[in-house]
Specification:
- The relative contact order is 0.17.
- The longest helix has 13 residues.
- The N terminus and C terminus are likely disordered.
- By secondary structure, this protein is α+β, with helices and mostly antiparallel strands.
- The protein is 30% helix and 25% strand.
- It has two domains: 239 residues, Enolpyruvate transferase domain (UDP-n-acetylglucosamine1-carboxyvinyl-transferase, Chain), CATH 3.65.10.10; 207 residues, Enolpyruvate transferase domain (UDP-n-acetylglucosamine1-carboxyvinyl-transferase, Chain), CATH 3.65.10.10.
- The strands form seven sheets. A four-stranded mixed sheet has the order 22-23-2-24. A four-stranded mixed sheet has the order 3-15-17-16, covered by helices on one side. A four-stranded mixed sheet has the order 5-6-4-14, covered by helices on one side.
- Strand 8 and strand 9 form a beta hairpin.
- It contains 15 helices and 25 strands.
- Helix 5 runs parallel beside helix 7.
- The protein binds uridine-diphosphate-N-acetylglucosamine.
Length: 455
Amino acid sequence: MTNQTIQTKSDAEKPALHIEGGYRLSGELTTNGAKNSALALMAATLLTTDECRLTNVPQLTDIRTMGAILEAIGVRYRQVEAHTVDIDARFLGTQRAPYELVNTLRASFFILGPILARHGIARIPLPGGCAIGARPVDLHVRGLVAMGADVTIEHGMVEARARKLVGARICLDFPSVGATETIMMAATLAEGETILENAAQEPEVVDLANFCSAMGAQIKGAGTKTIIIQGVKKLHGCEYRVIPDRVEIATFLAAAAITRSTLLIGPVLPEHLSAPLAKLKEMGMTITLVRPDTLEISPGSGLNATDIETLPFPGFPTDMQAPFMSVLSVAEGTSIISETVFENRLMHVPELNRLGADIRVRSGHAIVRGVPRLSGAPVVATDLRAAAALIIAGLAAQGTTTITGLHHLDRGYEAIEQKLQNLGARIQRLAPGSSFIAAPAVDCFSPSAGVAAGA
Ligand code: UD1
């Protein structure tokens, strides 16, 4: 067997993931807590002057950035264990959150509602985040204005003032997750009742409502289209465990599907995964709940094409669109993937095509013609879930795939390469300048290769 050394100029300049594709996965994956939930909960700790303890918080750059933002506004933020943080917002100040941090994290905007509710004034730079769309904040702002706030946006800074917030009836034009969370948090300390209609029903919204309730808030209806919040004078500290990350789980389900592997994945809350599980079954995968919180996914005789339309929960989540596109790129037949939530969330298409996929984009729809196999190539991750999609494609591609743009990946996946390695994947992160020793390309999925799991 001859080894191949991959060393290109771009490897020398950027950290990269190298994947030697064609190996089946096997074993059991332990999933982390939900990034999007943890970020909202971190913001909600500002609603109380007591200390809160959050457990099952994933170790991610987004979480560290949010922690740094909290510290910059006077909050005591301590990581006490690998996945446990204590947050004490007693000395929450009115200083501005630093632009350099807020600019990298859309979720930083979540602190607006709680700071306004506590201090009657909040100033936050307009947020950044993945470049998947324009991502305005008008729905957040309109909700706060309906509760009596004056909001101005000037020179890239949002300033909200309210002598007191008063409950209101608010109907969102679109069930925005972030706007639902901002309004819900502000309403917990407003005077009177807030009725939020056309609210987002995502599990992370329910998790935030449960956390606020554990702090003493009065919230009904989270998880339905109408949330009713009765404002209270004060909230108190508590300890709370973040829900499992349904997007991480779906990413590993997609990895199992594309590599024709059997995997156990837990802990999961299956009710958070109805849409992706239905799609995987349509593709021909078998899904079994082997324990109340553990799924087994295993391959059927083939991988079928299926159409996907991203929608607010309980529809198919936009965050899972890119990883599922990778799987469908090698399915039998043509799939149509319609991205309806974000207008610029198909940036992974040209990169998947570099790996040999046959995908064309027409007005927000991706037409995915399944190909028999992908082939490894250097590719660049353009956003968080695009990075996951490229890893999944790389696991099945013949030869070596090199992925750069890993700062996107590290925002949302804790130790993904170690987790995949433990399941038998040939994946390695290399620092700038190091080289990857790859075995010669093989087609481990062909019946003649007599695939052994992880072989
Ligand atoms: C959250 C998630 C993100 C996920 C998205 C949709 C976090 C940290 N991020 O993002 O991973 O992809 O939900 O499930 O939880 N919109 C407006 N005006 C607003 C707010 C949103 O027009 O004021 C639009 C957005 O541009 C987008 C759509 O609403 O087209 C959905 O956005 P939203 O649900 O708010 O997503 P985020 O909360 O930003």
